Amino acid sequence: MENTSTACNNLIFTRYLEIDQFEDKLIIQDYICPLCTGVYNNPVVDGCGHVFCNDCINQSLTKSVYCPISYRDISNDSCHQIPFINSIISKHIINCKNKCGWKKPLSNYQKHLDEECPNILLNCMFANCKECYLRSEKTVHESACEWRLIECEHCKSLVAFVEMQKHYEVCPKIRVICWQDCGISIERCELENHVKNNCRNTLVECFLAVHGCSKKYRRFDELAHYEESKLEHYSVISKSLTQTSEIKLEKEKIEKLEEFNELLQQRLSKLEYVVNKCGIHESKALANKNMNNGDL
């Protein structure tokens, strides 16, 4: 609840409740933790009967296994909660330490701090904003925070107000002028496709480039290029057809050689079969005979 602290034996103990906050200070002064010197918060009793805030005694036991009052050996297992003390304290009327005017039983205090107190200091909900403000100033701050999220009017993405200008430089839906000066305005996300496939000022290759035409021209000059390069196109097409015919002839020669090679392989296989079946000497005579008869 509160973060007032006190030091003891080189340890710093957090005081969650101050006695001055309570309406009935005379009664509540009997419920003071000896470590943090604040009113008990979730009180527990140790093995030798001393009462502390639960967090206070647990913190003390991280440094020492002795009771802070009697210095006898104790452990976490020997500490037990005291529900009836909690019940007594929770019914007492307490004033909010943030001086907001709230005054109710302690049992309602934490909810008040978490959800209602206008004087609680909050961190801004927007990423990258380092400012803090009172809960009462929350609406005003969030409506003016430079890191508040607003919708881009073009792509509808949520962008921090302070970074909107930077976003506009890359926003895919903002219309931009084609960088090739064709005069077309187009969404940034479509610009690459426009330049590649549609822009009249894009430098393109002749469709006869695969046949040998090496000229490039602006897309809008396509018809003019065909008119100016008729003779050259006839020449490259003729040359391409000639090369195609030569390639076809070479391919046919290769196919015939492959057929002849296959025939030789078949004859060789028959000869090897005869050698293995009849023996070397007999196979020679038989092979000669077959060769003369044209069987192989």
How would you explain this protein's 3D organization?
By secondary structure, the protein is of the alpha+beta class. Among the domains are: 4-116, 2-Layer Sandwich (Herpes Virus-1); 175-205, no CATH class. The protein contains ten helices and 15 strands. It has helices spanning 25-28, 54-61, 83-90, 109-116, 138-144, 164-168, 188-197, 222-228, 230-278, 280-293, and strands at residues 4-8, 11-15, 43-45, 51-53, 80-81, 93-95, 103-105, 121-123, 132-134, 149-151, 158-160, 175-177, 185-187, 203-205, 216-218. The strands form seven sheets. Strands 4-3-5 form a three-stranded antiparallel beta sheet. A two-stranded antiparallel ribbon has the order 1-2. Strand 3 (43-45) and strand 4 (51-53) form a beta hairpin. Helix 9 (230-278) crosses helix 10. The mean pLDDT is 85.
Task: Map the helices and strands.
Layout: E1 4-8, E2 11-15, H1 25-28, E3 43-45, E4 51-53, H2 54-61, E5 80-81, H3 83-90, E6 93-95, E7 103-105, H4 109-116, E8 121-123, E9 132-134, H5 138-144, E10 149-151, E11 158-160, H6 164-168, E12 175-177, E13 185-187, H7 188-197, E14 203-205, E15 216-218, H8 222-228, H9 230-278, H10 280-293
Antiparallel strand pairs: 1-2, 3-4, 3-5, 6-7, 8-9, 10-11, 12-13, 14-15
Helix pairs in contact: 9-10
CATH topology of the domain at 4-116: Herpes Virus-1
> What is the CATH top level name of the domain at 4-116?
Alpha Beta
Provide the succession of SSEs: EEHEEHEHEEHEEHEEHEEHEEHHH
Record the strand order, biggest sheet.
Answer: 4-3-5
Q: What percent strand? A: 15-25%
Structural class: alpha+beta
Helical residue percent? 40-55%
Shape field: elongated
| Number of helical elements | 10
Report the count of strand segments.
15
Alpha carbon gyration radius = 48 Å
CATH superfamily of the domain at 4-116: Zinc/RING finger domain, C3HC4 (zinc finger)
